[in-house]
Specification:
Layout (H helix, E strand, L loop, with lengths): L1 E6 L6 H15 L2 E5 L3 H7 L4 H4 L2 E2 L1 H7 L2 E6 L1 H11 L6 E5 L9 E2 L3 H9 L4 E12 L6 E3 L2 E6 L6 E7 L2 E8 L1 E5 L7 H4 L11 E7 L9 E4 L3 E7 L4 E5 L3 E5 L3 E16 L5 H8 L6 H9 L3
Parallel strand pairs: 1-2, 1-4, 2-3, 4-5, 5-6
Antiparallel strand pairs: 7-8, 7-18, 9-12, 9-16, 10-11, 10-15, 12-13, 13-14, 15-18, 16-17
């Protein structure tokens, strides 16, 4: 079994985590490879030996050699890794360097424990829907595991958006933009824009306007087997953005098509993984700040 390592080079802890992984892999005689994007940071800070340096390969080579990809960072790093893994079908292991993540939920300090479970077959695979989007007259297609966003280019001006679902008109908006999110992305940008929380296994897409200029414009949940056709009119350029990682700049008027991609992203998780526990922890559900304040100001 081969493991690939990718990560966020801007995290100061990453060298320590990677050097620990390398020691573990070498001790257990496990085959591994490291993405070239980590080459400088690991060589300088972890002081790897010459045999470890031979493990650095391109992303394409990493995907061709490995059975699992370890993404070290946070949810943003995981999303970027997912964009590289794409339709390869390789499961991603999310190792978190910060707070608990929705996607990268395994603490980096426990990553070797989980890899040991993987080697024993003690893990589960979750599959997540991916969205695809393209604009009429443009060849490039964007893919997003969280969301596709249509946004104005930074000036404080609303854009006119008309949305069709399977060629039936849903609504027209004067807004800053529009989000089409997956259930995975329901706890991301969509949530901050007033969208609902949707369980990741639900087969739906979320349509969520950004700052619409009417109080009656609400998020809508629709089956994920349909196609969105979005017409946009604006006096300024607009952007089509996937997961904050890739984008296309468009002139107005523009017509955009958004639908479910023909592949899904696989996530390797512990058998004890619990989505609702993550929700409660991340969103502080049930936390009583009054009790914390009482403890803080109590006199012994």
């Amino acid at each position: 079994m081969n493991f690939g390592i990718r990560g966020n080079i801007y995290k100061p802890e990453i060298s320590h985590v990677i050097s620990g992984l390398i020691r573990y892999f070498n001790e257990k005689n496990i085959r591994y490879y490291i993405d070239n994007s980590l080459k400088s940071i690991t060589q300088v800070n972890a002081k790897l030996n010459s045999s470890a340096r031979k493990k650095f390969v391109s992303t394409a080579k990493l995907l061709s050699l490995c059975d699992f990809i370890i993404s070290i960072g946070g949810d943003g790093t995981f999303l970027y890794t997912a964009s590289k893994v794409s339709s390869s079908g390789i499961p991603i292991i999310g190792a978190n360097l910060g707070k608990l993540g929705f996607l990268a939920e395994i603490p980096a300090s426990k990553i070797t424990v989980f890899i040991n479970d993987v080697l024993k077959g003690k893990y589960l695979i979750e599959e997540r829907t991916v969205l695809q989007a393209h604009a009429a007259g443009r060849k490039k297609t964007l893919y997003g595991i969280n969301e596709i966003v249509i946004n104005q280019s930074g000036m404080v001006k609303t854009i006119e958006i008309t949305v069709y679902y399977n060629d039936q008109r849903v609504n027209s908006y004067h807004a800053d933009g529009l989000i089409v999110a997956t259930p995975t992305g329901s706890t991301g940008y969509s949530l901050s824009a007033g969208g609902p929380i949707v369980h990741p296994s639900t087969k739906v897409m979320i349509l969520c306007p950004l700052s619409p200029h009417t109080l009656t414009a609400r998020p809508v949940i629709l089956p994920d087997d349909g196609i969105f056709r979005v017409k946009v009119t604006s006096r300024i350029p607009i952007y089509l953005i996937a997961d904050g990682n890739s984008s296309i700049k468009l002139s107005s008027p523009a017509e955009i098509f958004i639908s479910k991609a023909p592949y899904r992203i696989k996530i390797a998780k512990p058998l004890t993984s619990n989505y609702f526990k993550i929700l409660r922890t991340k969103l502080l559900w049930g936390e009583d700040k009054r009790k914390k304040a009482q403890r803080r100001y109590s006199v012994n």
